[in-house]
Amino acid sequence: MVTNLFVKDRVAIVGAGMTTFMRRALETPRELAWEAAKMALDQAGLTLKDIDCVVIGSAPDTFDGVHMKGEYLADGSGAFNKPMTRVYVGGGTGVFIPVSAWWHVASGLCRTVLAVGEEKMSPAHPHPQYVFRYIWDPILHRPLEPNLIWIFAMEMRRYMAKCGAKKEDIALVSVKNKRNALDNPAAQLAANITVDDVLKSELLVWPVNELDISPVTDGAAALVITNENVARQVTDSPVWIEGLGFTLENQHWENRELAYPRYLNYAARMAYKMAGIERPWKEIDVAEPYDPFDYKELHHIEGLMLARPCEAWKLLKEGYFDRDGELPTSPSGGLLGVGNPIAAAGVMKVAELFWQLRYEAGKRQVKKPVHRAVANAWGDLMQAGTVIVLGN
Amino acid sequence: MSVQKFPGTKLSAKEMYSLPGLVESSPQAKYEFSAGPTISRFLKGLKEGKILGRRCPRCGRIYVPPRDYCEFCHVPLADWVEVPDTGRVETAVVSYISVKRERLEKPEVVGVIRLDVPGYPEDGYEFAGLFHRICMDPEEAKKDKTIGMKVKARWRPPEQRTGSILDIECFEPVG
Predict the structure, then answer these.
(1) Alpha helices, H only, chain A
(2) B129/A255 touch (CB, cutoff 8 Å), yes or no
(3) Within chain A, which residues score under 70 in pLDDT?
């Protein structure tokens, strides 16, 4: 993969906002988008007048239960009478939103972009899981009556078998992230739990128990992304988008190794190359790997080359990924602790790194000095990988 | 600036169901899917008790499930080959919930079978394989030795086959 680095404008994030993440929000999806967008603009010290283009990301329309969600969310996101793009790569959408905003700005097409992610999952009944039925191949998979969790359980089992990790090793991710979320006022599932709590929670699809999984969440998150010129005018501490990557693996997951996320590794290599990073395990100071399931954080740490394949779970046990560890991961609390409103969750991860790189994360601020950070998101059936590298 | 409070209002389940103007809507969408020429032929093979794969003339991969084209070489696939109905368990899980997340009375074992098909490096990243049920005791399935275990397709009797992935009842351990 050859990346053209000769872009017109250097791109920075200058503001971030999000709603509280929660089950059953009173606010409509539009209102959630508006709250997050307004907060991001306020933090940037800008108003809608300053926005040239809007990028909206949202996962399947079937969650919120409205048609053409991008257009539906447009007014809350300040997109009327402006060029508006909606991007969607399943769970990978959250990081794809700032990636898309980047090319709007880097190309010179727009100076300042408002980037908004929203998801309201509570409306789907009896459970949003049923909506995921449509993710499976209609001819070869659906006759087996699969539940969404099967696919993740199969991947987790493969990771356990190949890497020698036990359920209790993996449960530590859930313990860490829910603990990190205690310091996050936006968090839905902050808690001090033990490995035992995870192992004793409801067994859904062995090896996956309920506390291995992120919850059903409503929420929105937004970023203000602009060119260097504007960034220098509005803030002393812009956070630069230094690298990005996005790649797709094929959808036939029954034909490939599930223990290692190649879909992510290609995207990560693309992003690191662009950022001039050769040894991510040394050069990245803080990371927000995508963690809808606890094993997925380990999987993604390895895909992002922050640990060797099959070694993330060993480092986790040593406290390497704790907030005061060598390489803190998910200091926000992650999807497991803060919540998982799909597209908004990825934006939340980028917002967290923005705050970390500006030393604005308050009690969540990691101990070590931070210069460079990476976030990723993942979507569809072990398929879509999106990566962003930030620097201060 | 460290943010202390974020916008948004959480409702309890009770509050939500007593909201003024709460609307319930259930779209009744039904779909009929055609399988396409390649998978149709594969399904016809299942009805005859055969697992069919398709070979790439350029790289030699044999695709199961078959495709119309090679995903790597981007050339049309030509030869059809019957492949063995045996393989090894690549991954296996035990489901205690249904598609709608209700508790199942009897847990079921499902997983991916790496079929004994040539054209791929041993233990390579890519392989010919199927996602299916595995007929075995759930507690046995959780043991380490299940991964890599040899399995064989258990076929439905010919008169019950309909040209569906369910013409294979499941894969079961051999030996």
Answers:
(1) 29-44, 61-64, 69-73, 93-106, 148-163, 167-180, 195-200, 228-234, 262-275, 280-283, 294-303, 312-317, 334-337, 342-357
(2) yes
(3) 1-6
Helix (H) or strand (E) holding B16: helix B13-17
Torsional sign, CA B137, B142, B146, B147: positive
Query: Closest by alpha carbon to A7, among A101, A113, A103?
Result: A103
Whether A349 contacts A95, CB under 8 Å: yes
Q: Do residues A221 and A371 touch, judged by C-beta distance below 8 A?
A: no
For residues A185 and B3, the answer to whether their CB atoms sit within 8 Å is: yes
- Torsion angle, alpha carbons of A41, A287, A332, A327, to 10: -140
Mapped onto helix, strand or coil, the DSSP state of residue A237 is coil
pLDDT of residue A312: 97
User: In this structure, what DSSP letter does residue A366 have?
Assistant: -
Distance CA A85, CA A93 (A): 13
Structure tokens belonging to residue A220: 């929105």
- Residue in chain B closest to A31 (alpha carbons) equals B8
CA-based nearest distance A107→chain B, Å: 31
**Any idea which residue has 């709590």 for tokens?**
A197
Integer angstrom CA distances of residue A302 from A115, A200, A242, A265: 28, 27, 21, 8
In Å, what is the CA distance from A303 to each residue of A67, A320, A375, B166?
A: 35, 17, 12, 35
The proportion of chain B whose per-residue pLDDT surpasses 90, expressed as a percent, equals 77
Interchain pair B101, A161: CB under 8 A = no
Q: Which residue of A has its CA nearest to B91?
A: A158
Half-sphere exposure of residue B97: CA atoms within 13 angstroms, side-chain side: 21
Residue A385 · residue A92 · CB < 8 Å: yes
pLDDT (0 to 100) of residue A5? 63
Q: Residue A391 in contact with residue A369, Cβ under 8 Å? A: no
Domain positions in chain A are 11-124+215-391
Q: What distance in Å separates residue A252's CA from the closest CA in chain B?
A: 9
Q: DSSP strand E in chain B: where?
A: 51-55, 62-63, 80-83, 86-97, 103-115, 129-133, 150-155, 168-173
Instruction: Inspect the interface and report whether the beta carbons of B112 and A154 lie closer than 8 Å.
Output: yes
Indicate the residue type of A327: L
For domain A11-124+215-391, give the fold.
Answer: Peroxisomal Thiolase; Chain A, domain 1 (3.40.47)
Question: Of A361, A145, A141, whose CA–CA distance to A237 is shortest?
Answer: A361
pLDDT at A65: 83
Block residue for tokens 């079929």: B115
The CA distance from A271 to A131, in Å, is 32
B104, closest residue in chain A (CA to CA): A204
Q: How many angstroms separate the CA atoms of B63 and A218, rounded?
A: 41
How close is the nearest chain A Cα to the Cα of B4, in Å? 6
pLDDT greater than 70 at residue B1 = no
Residue A325: DSSP 8-state: S
